[in-house]
Amino acid sequence: MAHDTQAINRARNLFGDQQQIWLFGYGSLIFKADFDYLERKPARIDNWSRRFWQGSHDHRGTPGAPGRVATLIESPGTVCAGMAYLVTPEVFDHLDHREKNGYLRFTTEMTFHDGEQAQGLVYIATEDNEAYLGPASEEHIAQHIFSAAGPSGPNDEYLLRLADSLRDLNEDDPHVYSIEEHLQALKKD
Ligand code: SIN
């Protein structure tokens, strides 16, 4: 799949003529909301796991030395916690640009803390995109993140801010917290 997903995402009109859409964020969209929204609240989606298996050429790395950022992997029986934003359609030009390095819009059902559910959108980088890196041990991922940086800043900032945000939300994520632990050890050396 193309390196830049903006055109594909523009053609995927998944919200019809809806004027308000719920967007589910699970990575940098949790801690960096650089777009207008009407409302935001914690939410989860079922049967997906957050994994640092996506390469970043444009934010936390470069094409020659990609960083590692989060994507979602289908895994029945699991839950991924994140933040939901109620947005208007105009916001998607900005979001498509921000998520252009391999992420595609998908529809998803999300569940809020009060048990209410809503249909919405989520950006997922699937394994057929050119920047996809795939599985590695948490220790290896931490080493990779430790040495990467890109136009949006050091790669470790992404991981550490995400871990802090998940703690603020009282959410457990063994994958993220294990990478964080390895990263903290590397930073101490
Ligand atoms: C997301 O946060 O929902 C997508 C991945 C990212 O931008 O980090």
From TrEMBL:
It comes from the Bacteria. Its EC number is 4.3.2.7. GO terms for biological process: glutathione catabolic process. Keywords: Lyase, Transferase. One of its GO terms (cellular component) is cytoplasm. Pfam families: ChaC. GO terms for molecular function: glutathione specific gamma-glutamylcyclotransferase activity; transferase activity. PANTHER family: CATION TRANSPORT PROTEIN CHAC-RELATED, GLUTATHIONE-SPECIFIC GAMMA-GLUTAMYLCYCLOTRANSFERASE 2. This is glutathione-specific gamma-glutamylcyclotransferase.
